[in-house]
Amino acid sequence: xxxxxxxxxxxxxxxxxxxxxxxxxxxxxxxxxxxxxxxxxxxxxxxxxxxxxxxxxxxxxxxxxxxxxxxxxxxxxxxxxxxxxxxxxxx
Length: 91
What we know:
Layout: H1 7-13, E1 24-28, H2 29-35, E2 45-48, E3 52-60, E4 77-78, H3 85-88
Parallel strand pairs: 1-3
Antiparallel strand pairs: 1-4, 2-3
């Protein structure tokens, strides 16, 4: 699988194709602590976009993101999205 930026996720959050989104995420420890201070994040839910519910299925220490400046990078979310080459590439 290839790395995909945040653009497709944002577009899906604000479109009628929300059924295609996974409703599970992996978050960084920093984001988990900010959302649920002193509590375990696994199994917790939060809402984004047009009220779409997401459930935390994993927590990672940190995430290196090449296109994001270091400010705020600690607060990251992984959405398990798979796209086909026909959707992602073209010349």
